[in-house]
Amino acid sequence: MRLITVCLLAGVGVISVGGSTGWAQMCQQYVPNPAPNYTDEKAELFVAKHVPHDTSNIECQVPTNGWVRKNNIADNSNSPPVYDNDGYRIHLKVLTSGGCKQQYWDFWWGCQEVPSSQTYRSIGGSPIEKLSPSYSYVGPVQPNNFFNIQTLDTRNQTGTASTGLSVQFLDEGSYSFKSDTPLGVTSCSFSPSNREALFTVNVLECKPEWYVNVAGTLNYHGPATGPIVIAVPPGFSGALGAAKAAASDWAAALGRDITAVETTCTAGDELCIELDDDHGTVEDDPEGCASLGPASYDTNGVWTGRTRVRFEPNWKGAHADSLRWTIAHELGHYFGLWNRQDGSCGYDTTLMKGGNCYGTSAPPAGTALGPTASDVSALVNSTYGSQGRSICGW
């Protein structure tokens, strides 16, 4: 886990018009009615990918728990190096309040919270670099109708906001950010306040894909807890060794109790996946040499009955490692992943790249026979975590 902390430090502004403290005191005494809804005030962080070298043009962006493609060094001869897939920036949005207005001898008084920030970046909790401000001195802004909320956003550079913090993501993993924005106030009745935002972004090279419904709102997957059994029924003893290897690979990857035994599943057992050999014999079966026979599911997409790893009828005689890969791949669907066919993915970086059918020969050298770190990340940080599936950079 890499921790990047963005600390935003604020100053305090003071209104002074005509040099009269009496006028300012009149403004201080004003209390908005109705009282302002401070629950609307917050801070948010985003990761956006810009057109390289164009801070005004955003290609895509993700909220917290989103996914972005890692940067790679494309040309190390320059200083600093040139990165492909460049253009990521951390952006901050802060809402501030105003709520004091008084007319006196044609002077209008406005009271506004005033952020004035300097940004620091840290990894592992220790500040290592002082960066450009996210906000310089902003405000006060005279509110309308005695109360106003003003948005300050580095994505569109409102107020005197910067263009965000340029970053590179050179390692796969989850990056955490924190912004802390103390807000000073003008000489009115507001008390100093603080805006804090937490943000996590997941970084991968291989584009993640999940087993979702057509609308993309439901991720089908097995239960998060409980021992899982791969049932090897009579007639499938030739696949028992491959099933045990696949079960062991997934058990180690997820820290789950997963075993393969010679048995059958009951229809309602959502923790049981049974081997079968009817793939291709049913109308509308998907292309390929195997599939997951899905079950019923609940409103959260969790299987509520047994599932099946379906071979073609001619599977016997296949190489043990080919069967191992096939079973492990279909278990990936059971847990919630879909085929990862993007050009950023290879058979060495993900178990879920489709098209590697079993045969009498072993899979090509370098093929991942079990789940990779990239596969596990997509499950742990989404399917069995935040359920965040927004992506950017692919």
What does this structure look like?
By secondary structure, the protein is an alpha/beta fold. The chain folds into 2 domains: 2-204, no CATH class; 228-382, Collagenase (Catalytic Domain). It is built from 4 helices and 22 strands. It has helices at residues 21-29, 240-254, 320-335, 373-386, and strands spanning 2-7, 43-50, 58-62, 66-69, 72-75, 82-84, 88-100, 103-104, 107-108, 111-114, 120-123, 126-130, 148-153, 165-166, 173-185, 193-204, 228-231, 258-261, 272-276, 290-293, 307-311, 391-392. The longest helix is centred in the last third of the chain and has 16 residues, at 320-335. The chain starts with a strand and ends with a strand. Mean pLDDT is 78; it is low at 1-40, 99-110, 122-126 and 137-147.
Could you write a compact summary of the structure shown?
This protein has 394 residues and is α/β, with parallel strands linked by helices. It contains 4 helices and 22 strands.
Sketch the major β-sheet. 11 strands, mixed
Oligomer: single chain
Helix content: 10-25%
As residue ranges, the low-confidence spans are 1-40, 99-110, 122-126, 137-147
Number of helices: 4
Distance between the termini: 22 Å
Order of helices and strands: EHEEEEEEEEEEEEEEEEHEEEEHHE
Structural category is alpha/beta
Task: Give the tally of β-strands.
Answer: 22
CA gyration radius, whole angstroms: 28 Å
**Coarse morphology:** elongated
Overall residue-averaged pLDDT value: 78
Number of structurally distinct domains: 2
